[in-house]
Amino acid sequence: MVPSDGVATSRWRRWRSSDLWWSFTHKPSAMIAAGILLVLVIAAFAAPLYVPQNPYDPAQLDLLNAEIPPIWSPDGQWPFILGTDTQGRDMLSAILYGSRSSIIIGIASVALSLSIGMILGLFAGYFGGITDTVLMRFGDILLSIPTILIAILVSAIARQALPENLRDAGAAGVLVLAITLSAWVQYARTVRAQAAVERNREYVQAARLLKVPARRIMFRHILPNTLTPIFVAATLNFGMAILTEATLSFLGIGMPPSQPSLGTLIRLGNQFLFSGVWWVVLFPVIQLCLLVVSVNLLGDWLRDALNPKLR
């Protein structure tokens, strides 16, 4: 038997010799974006280990520490490196905790919308007929409405449907649902187009003649051939999901002030932008820009790297 470390070494060697790795190492923008994204993600999820306070815990907030400027300013104080907001909340802690919330919501919404879109797209493309017509016309209706309006409508309805004592606790789930219902159509249309082509291939026809169940044909044979464009779309939509969450939170129908996300921090800081407390809004904006731009750069690289016409 081959030792497990030998198998891992062999896989790593094959990955190092792949076209995708070569494209990544010869694309400086992709390497820089990946490095920035890795640092941001690690910093956000490891924040409880080193930040000076938990911004979710009111017991750790002190109004006497409110509106302290960044550490390099004459009035700056340690350990508030990026200063504090109007509630005495350390901005570095709030930004890192907020980034974690935004990343989790983005990943969850992309995973859920991807799952729904793939399943519905497979059914529409494989069976065609009335199934295809109903699903795609419903998708066309959703596409005719701006994504942010759908998210606002779903978020507002879902929050009102929840009991008042559960609205803050369920805010993240409501955001995931709102973003999912406005984003699954793109995945469904992509998978549906590919499945409509693959169902006429010889291997699918042979599987049908052998009485292979439709479910097995769809998920074991057709679905793997649709994953390349889906991965690219998911990467790009991850950045869009973070922006959508930030927009909803900025409008006041996203994460509550007691559970700050980047959008919530920007909304709260925007109220004091012209009062001299500029750092409360500037640093969350920079963090959001770095996060979204790095994801989009990786998505652009992945789209080019997986496009056979560009090789």
Automatic annotation (TrEMBL):
| Example of a GO cellular component annotation carried by this entry | plasma membrane
Q: What is the recorded name of this protein?
A: ABC transporter permease
Which residue numbers delimit the ABC transmembrane type-1 domain?
A: 99-299
Keyword vocabulary terms for this entry: Cell membrane, Membrane, Transmembrane, Transmembrane helix, Transport
The residue range of the signal peptide is: none
The keyword Transferase is assigned to this record: no
Q: What PROSITE patterns does UniProt report for this protein, alphabetically? A: ABC_TM1
* An example Gene Ontology biological process: transmembrane transport
A Pfam family that the UniProt record links to this protein: BPD_transp_1
Gene3D superfamilies, sorted? MetI-like (1.10.3720.10)
CDD domains from the entry?
Answer: TM_PBP2
Membrane-crossing segments per the record: 30-51, 103-128, 134-157, 230-251, 272-298
Similarity field: Belongs to the binding-protein-dependent transport system permease family.
The protein's predominant localisation is membrane
What does the UniProt entry say about where the protein is found? Cell membrane
Per the record, membrane topology reads: Multi-pass membrane protein
Q: Which InterPro entries match?
A: BP-dependent_transpt_permease, MetI-like, MetI-like_sf, OppC_N
